[in-house]
Amino acid sequence: MVSDSPFDPRELRVSDAERMHVVNVLQKAIGHGMLNLDEFTARTDQALAAKTRGELNALLVDLPGLTHRDSNSPVRPQQVELRAVMSSVRRVGRWTVPSDLLISNRLGSTDLDFTEAVIPHDEVRIKIEVAGGAVKLLLPERASADVHGVRVTAGSVTDKLHQARGGHPHFVLSGTVTAGSLQVRRANYVRIGRLLVRSPWKLSWDTTTD
Questions:
Q1: What Pfam families does UniProt report for this protein, alphabetically (predicted)?
Q2: Beta strands 188-192; 195-199: pairing state
Q3: What is the mean pLDDT of residues 74-89?
Q4: Which of 26-60 are b and which e, b meaning 16 or more Cβ less than 10 Å from the residue's Cβ?
Q5: What was the pLDDT predicted at 128?
């Protein structure tokens, strides 16, 4: 039996490409100062879990000038800045990683743990602008990183991956380190029964057998 009720286009199912389009629009919004990083993380989680166009559009309705039209329309991701001026910035646990990130550090510390983060991109571009500060990046177990684009003056870059490509996700670093330091390393895990020991130090239980 065919229903006489009009079909609501908001109930149309969405594709992965449409979800990623909305994630890029949200990243553009954070670049314009319309969303903070916590709001971006929350909305990105909802976008990646959305099943219908109505659910996607609800994430953009309060962002003036940024609407979800054609899923194939190109949206240039905006750079998201994390700024530390004589202060500390730390991200750990579940946070959503933008595809284009600027770390601006002046006599401060920036500590980013990507091991439990949501990274909906194959490649993450990070520009480093460090003067007298320290930046530490802890990448996921299978990630790779290219630090050849970072210029160093009276400072140091420590790359403990020694793997320019081939991992997933792939991090591409560029920028400058002046009288400061940049450390890039990857998390390693050792299983002892159901106990997972992470290096750097962290304990967790494997619940997959529950």
A1: DUF1707 (PF08044), LiaF-like_C (PF09922)
A2: antiparallel
A3: 78
A4: bbbbbbeebbeeeebbebbebbeebeebebbbbbb
A5: 96
Query: Which helix or strand (DSSP H or E) is residue 25 part of?
Result: helix 16-31
Quote the pLDDT of residue 70: 45
141-153 pLDDT, tens digit each: 889 999 999 999 9
Task: Give me the long-range contacts of 109-112 (CB less than 8 A, separation at least 24).
Answer: 109/84, 109/133, 109/134, 109/135, 109/136, 110/82, 110/84, 110/134, 110/135, 110/136, 111/135, 111/136, 111/138, 112/82, 112/136, 112/137, 112/138
Q: Tokens 């949200």 sit at which residue?
A: 26
Token output for 16:
């992965």
**Structure tokens, 168:** 């997933």
Q: Choose among 102, 1, 95: nearest CA to 42.
A: 95
Backbone angles phi, psi at 27, to 5 degrees: -65, -35
Q: What string of DSSP letters covers 28-51?
A: HHHHTTSS-HHHHHHHHHHHHH--
Q: Using CA atoms, how far apart are residues 93 and 37, in angstroms rounded to an integer?
A: 14
Q: Is the peptide bond before 77 cis (omega within 30 degrees of 0)?
A: no
Q: At what angle do helices 37-49 and 16-31 cross, to 10 degrees?
A: 170
Locate tokens 């996607």: which residue? Answer: 56
User: In terms of residues, how long is the chain?
Assistant: 210
Residue appearing with tokens 């166009």: 53
Q: How far apart are CA 5 and CA 92, in angstroms?
A: 48
